[in-house]
Design goal:
The structure holds 2 protein chains of 2 kinds.
Chain A (H helix, E strand, L loop, with lengths): L5 E6 L4 E6 L2 H7 L2 H12 L13 E5 L13 E6 L6 E6 L3 H7 L4 E5 L6 E6 L2 E6 L8 H12 L5 E4 L2 H4 L7 E3 L3 E3 L4 H7 L2 E7 L10 H17 L1 H10 L4 H7 L21 H5 L10 E5 L9 E4 L18 E2 L3 H7 L8 H13 L4 H16 L5 H4 L9 H12 L5 H4 L2 H8 L8 E2 L2 E2 L9 H9 L12 H4 L15 H18 L11 H11 L6 H22 L10 H5 L14 H12 L9 H7 L2
Parallel strand pairs in A: 1-6, 7-12
Antiparallel strand pairs in A: 1-2, 3-4, 3-6, 4-5, 7-8, 9-10, 9-12, 10-11, 13-14, 14-15, 16-17
Helix pairs in contact in A: 1-2, 2-20, 2-22, 7-21, 11-13, 12-15, 13-17, 18-20, 18-24, 20-22, 20-24
Chain B lengths: L1 E6 L15 E5 L6 H7 L9 E4 L2 E2 L2 H6 L7 E5 L6
Parallel strand pairs in B: 1-5
Antiparallel strand pairs in B: 1-2, 3-4, 3-5
Classes of the chains: A alpha+beta, B alpha+beta.
């Protein structure tokens, strides 16, 4: 057992804190983290619940490998119902918070109800208390982190916190932990703030024990680290350039969404790429990238630590942004950069700092600003709406302004904070929202990468690349190269990626290990840590079970197969340049077969036979 | 004919000094292939993981045999990934 077998339950309405044993039958069926917490949510809440009501629950959860010596095993997830999509939300984060939670002795913390006043939850091993947070309400995530650290006088307290955006109702608010890491997507921070819960601070010193077969586990985890070290991607590429190495790749293949997906290639891509982050700035003689960094137990170290030129307009006379801080990942550089048509690396980096400072999902933020820019250029939004700002594509000033007002929940920022779908509907142009199930797209255009279009359309949490990253195969050749413009074989590919990702997200490890690890590498590590036989075959069944359970939750919440679609722009408006020139996404050729390989009806509903086969 | 060679990430070190933004213009003959060009610039074959001609992936056979047209862009990366 690598599980602690302990659950902390916090009822914020009553102010009560209780403990209970982990349901081990469910752990055997759903492994941990994403799968296991979703099972708890399914059993304890109604899928039709208002996501921002006290009746919704929010679960912070680790996996059985979290806190162990397996590489990257510091992950935790936040599982709840999303206020952005109305679907299941599961946001995963690295840093040190997950490890600390496991070391304090908890597999998961279930947060229910709503506190009558702002509070934060402080956990020190087996002791937990709710502490008044009136003085923290209205503070940024960074200020809150600093004040809680000062209060407890322990730098090793790990803190997950919401910022001002969440307090003001921004629907894509994140939960930031360790200042720069985030459970970013689907508005999990908005749910946390709706419960008047400002932060969860944890100190854990118990260690993580209970490994089923320590000798086997030591060998399996060492074998895994060797594979990561010897792989060119995880051993060299990611530490050197981070995920930002993809900026030029995706632009060259003609799949870099630009100016709200109007185009698929960005003329300024090289200026905001991973390579550009290494170049010395003429203005101050420093490079954007200071160094790389790593989350707990990670032997890849893809984090970016960056600076902005202190004389750049975005941070001039704002010394709080002059030091090293969390730098750009590819997704953020894309959403704040090419999707908004902005090629100013300093400006994009500064906007990313603001997202971390107030805990906002930069993907949804950038994509919603891009939609707002198109609405502005189309005349649907005017300076009367913005209060004077000309929201034009390519304007770094407009990007910074829109970011600031959104993360602080001020003025027009409150409208951006409702997300692209609601914003475009309000201004009468719903077709300009680049979303699936209400969640904004990540950085890959489905016209140039057909399979990722199917993955977006069927993702259980709305548009998301991390629910089935077929880009690995279609573009990067991992584990095998497939043609990005072909649709044949993509339904099976999408299902395979989706199911395997469920296992990774439920184990406590990082998805980036899968650039080197297959389930053949992962299953032996789970098997050695956990009691029972965790073969590759069992892992695949568990993965499919988790995916189907999430699907059933969404169907019960009111979503249907009709929600498995893409915006008209991607289905009808063909790419104008690049290898995909003349192509739209051919979702209609893939979706029926996808339902078939999943064992679902033609309407996208799991059949009784499928549910029975999976034990659902 | 003139083509553009782009070498990214760890392969940038193999570009000539006059390269701008990871790219250099080349005059190539009708017989040149992706592999022959990479060899000229001392790029190890095993490091050329992602080889794109005008954005389209070349498999190992195409890298050895496909020739170029005027204005082509050959872009090459070592093994890379992100998310």
């Amino acid at each position: 057992m690598a599980w602690t077998r302990n659950v902390l339950r916090v009822n914020l309405t009553k102010g009560s804190i209780t403990t209970e044993p982990l349901n081990m039958q469910w752990a055997n069926d759903y492994l941990g983290q994403r799968g296991l917490a979703t099972k708890y949510l399914v059993e304890e809440t109604e899928p039709t619940v208002d996501a921002l009501s006290p009746e919704n629950k929010m679960i912070m959860t680790t996996g059985p490998l979290t806190g162990t010596m397996v590489s990257t095993a510091g992950r935790y997830s936040v599982v709840t119902k999303s206020p952005l999509t109305g679907a299941i939300a599961c946001s995963n984060s690295g840093g040190y918070f997950g490890n600390e939670m496991k070391n304090a002795g908890w597999d998961m913390v279930i947060l229910e109800g709503k506190s009558p006043k702002p509070v934060y939850l402080y956990i020190e091993n087996d002791k937990a208390e709710l502490i008044p947070a009136d003085d923290l309400w209205g503070k940024s995530a960074w200020e809150t982190d600093e004040q809680i650290h000062a209060k407890h006088q322990d730098p090793l307290v790990r803190i997950a916190v919401v910022g001002r955006a969440a307090e003001k109702g921004c629907l894509f608010s994140a939960i930031v932990n360790d200042l720069h890491r985030a459970a970013g997507r689907s508005g999990v921070g908005t749910v946390m703030a709706s419960k008047n819960l400002k932060a969860v601070a944890i100190r854990g010193t118990l260690g993580v024990g209970g490994i089923s077969d320590p000798t086997k586990f030591f060998q399996a985890s060492q074998d895994g680290k060797k594979v990561l070290a010897e792989n060119a991607v995880t051993g060299e590429g990611l530490p050197a350039l981070g995920t930002q190495v993809l900026m030029n790749v995706i632009n060259e293949v003609g799949a870099l969404p630009t100016r709200n997906h109007r185009e698929v290639q960005f003329e300024g891509a090289s200026k905001i790429s991973g390579e550009a982050m290494l170049e010395v700035r003429e203005s101050d003689g420093k490079a954007n990238l200071t160094t790389n960094g790593a989350c707990f137990g990670c032997t890849i170290a893809c984090q970016r630590i960056s600076t902005v030129d202190k004389d750049h307009f975005s941070v001039k006379d704002k010394p709080q942004y002059h030091g090293n801080s969390g730098g750009l990942e590819f997704e953020n550089a894309w959403s704040l950069g090419s999707d908004c048509g902005v090629d100013d690396l300093d400006a994009i980096t500064a906007a990313n700092f603001l997202c971390n400072e107030d805990a906002v999902d930069p993907i949804s933020l950038g994509a919603t600003i891009a939609a707002a820019m198109e609405l502005f250029e189309e005349g649907a939004i005017t300076v009367k709406d913005t209060g004077g700002m000309e929201l034009k594509f390519g304007s770094a000033e407009a990007l910074l302004w829109a970011t600031e007002v959104t993360v602080r929940g001020e003025g027009f920022g409150k409208e951006i904070g409702q997300g692209s779908k609601r914003l475009c509907e309000k201004y009468g142009r719903p077709e300009l929202s680049m979303t699936v199930k209400g969640q904004e797209f990540p950085a890959y255009d489905p016209r140039g990468i057909q399979g990722i279009g199917l993955a977006y359309a069927t993702s259980n949490r709305g548009a998301c690349h991390l629910r089935g990253y077929t880009v690995a195969s279609e573009i990067l050749g991992i584990p095998e190269k497939t043609d990005p413009l072909a649709t044949d074989g993509k339904p099976g590919l999408v299902k395979a990626f989706q199911d395997a990702t469920c296992v990774v997200d439920s184990a406590g490890i990082c998805a980036f290990t899968t650039f080197a690890w297959s389930l053949e590498d992962i299953a032996p590590q789970i098997d050695a840590a956990c009691e029972g036989d965790w073969s590759v075959e069992r892992c695949l069944v568990v993965g499919e079970r988790i995916w189907t359970m999430e699907r059933d939750y969404n169907l019960a919440a009111g979503l249907t197969g009709k929600d498995d679609t893409l915006p008209k722009r991607l289905l009808k408006d063909v790419a104008k340049t690049g290898p995909a020139e003349g192509r739209a996404n051919d979702l209609h050729k893939m979706l029926p077969e996808y339902y078939e390989v999943r064992g679902w009806t033609t309407d996208g509903v799991p059949t009784d036979e499928t549910r029975s086969r999976l034990g659902l | 004919m003139e083509i553009t060679l782009k070498l990214y990430a760890g392969l940038s070190q193999y570009l000539p000094e006059n390269a701008v933004k990871h790219a250099t213009k080349l005059d190539v003959s009708d017989a040149e292939t992706a592999f022959s060009i990479l060899e000229k610039f001392s790029v190890p074959k095993e490091s050329a993981h992602l080889v794109l001609l005008n954005g389209v992936y070349l498999d190992s056979n195409q890298r050895e045999h496909s020739t170029f047209s005027e204005g082509d862009i050959l872009a090459v990366w070592p093994p890379v990934a992100g998310g």
